[in-house]
Write a structure and sequence with these properties.
mainly alpha, Fumarate Reductase Cytochrome B subunit, binds protoporphyrin IX containing FE
Amino acid sequence: MTIRSTGSHYGAIAQGFHWLTVILVLGAYITSEGGSEAKIYSAAFDTTRRIHETFGLAVLAVVVLRLLWRLADRTPAPTEAPVWMQRVAKAAHILLYVLLFAVPLSAVFGTWFQGHPVTPLGFDFAAPMAPSRGLGGTSIEAHELLGNAILWLAGIHAAAALLHHFVLHDSVLRRMLPGGRT
Ligand code: HEM
Ligand code: HEM
């Protein structure tokens, strides 16, 4: 496997970003807490909320770096899968990228509009704007909805990758795994 992607295989860096994103999104999801605002911001939930926000902000940082790298890297050519399948896959990838921005950003703006600081472990980033309870509530609701949506979409996307590998026996999953032929 090479550092850069080739015509048939994602390179080590593109793969690293992909699998790191998977870990961070799962980390954010597992540590997400529902419930009232009073509960989320109580002392008992401070550490869990901070861990959740740390995972979430890392997702945002990694997607920015990943897209910058994608501009410099090449993208593997389409696989042997039928054209309609490639179109559906491409649409799913674009939607996943949109959600990788929308999920953390809706949380950051929602938190600030609710009048709370954004609090990854060790830092408190105070809101740069005046609170607006209505906007804050709507953004946080959107965050919860989109946070669940990204898990569903990623689940379908993962199931499709496994289907390619075990049922269609093509190269789609292998080109996102280390060790494949380039
Ligand atoms: C990809 C990243 C993220 C995912 C997948 C995610 C997922 C979720 C989900 C599913 C919930 C709702 C939990 C439930 O109702 O059961 C939630 C709540 C929350 N998230 Fe995130 N989140 C992410 C990033 C962030 C970031 C960056 C922040 C930083 C501000 C954040 C702050 C919050 C807060 C404060 C809540 C609780 C809202 C409330 O109930 O008042 N999240 N998150
Ligand atoms: C949170 C979970 C996940 C997210 C957000 C995600 C996101 C993405 C994105 C955005 C791409 C497009 C890459 C590009 O060309 O720039 C992609 C490709 C890919 N993903 Fe995932 N993914 C997730 C989980 C998984 C899992 C669990 C698997 C395997 C079981 C998987 C297998 C693949 C494969 C094989 C490709 C390459 C597809 C192709 O070449 O057309 N992904 N993923």
